[in-house]
Amino acid sequence: MQNALRPNRPPKARVLLADDDLEFRHLLSGELRQAGYAVTEVGSGSDLLDRLASDLIESAEPQFDLLVSDVRMPGWSGLEVVVGLRRAGLGLPVVLITAFGDPKTHRAADKLGAVLLDKPFDLDDFRGAVAAELSQAR
Question: Are 69 and 39 in contact (CB under 8 A)?
């Protein structure tokens, strides 16, 4: 019955958010939820990889519409995870964030088709990057 009440409302975009800084992760997840996205949070590169792998095992289709990940995290870096996604043929849109945005890191992100935001960044820029990546993917 609920679908009959909202027939034209698109489903929420699903965002997987990975950052080892708990406070910063909560700040970003709050921004994303306030913007209407469904957010799943993980706190390390290992947790990120485990979550992506388990979702792909359970379903042939990715369970997320966008990945937002810190570059430097325990376990696997955000860049390493994105390399793995691309090698697996998955074009999941990615927004990477880092406090260590040297030219080499920017080139690597660009080569992988990911947006890279340098910390500290404006939250409006963050929301804009997320919205742009999701709109390009649809």
Answer: no
Q: Which domains does the chain have, with CATH numbers?
A: 17-131 (3.40.50.2300)
Q: Among 60-69, 71-80, 111-120, whose mean pLDDT is lowest?
A: 60-69
| Assigned token pair, 127 | 């929301």
Task: Please list, in sequence order, all residues whose beta carbon lies within 8 angstroms of the beta carbon of residue 70, skipping any fewer than 6 positions away.
Answer: 18, 19, 20, 21, 78, 96, 97, 98
Instruction: For CA atoms 99, 88, 52, 115, give the dihedral sign.
Output: positive
95-104 pLDDT tens trace: 999 999 899 9
Instruction: Answer positive or negative: Cα dihedral of 83, 84, 86, 90.
Output: negative
Q: Which residue has the higher pLDDT, 117 or 137?
A: 117
Query: What single-letter amino acid sits at 99?
Result: A
Omega prior to 120 cis, within 30 of 0: yes
Please give the sequence-ordered ranges of beta strands (E in DSSP) within the chain, or none if there are none.
Answer: 14-18, 38-42, 66-70, 94-98, 115-118
Q: In this structure, which amino acid lies at residue 90?
A: L
CA separation for the pair 88, 84 (Å, rounded): 6
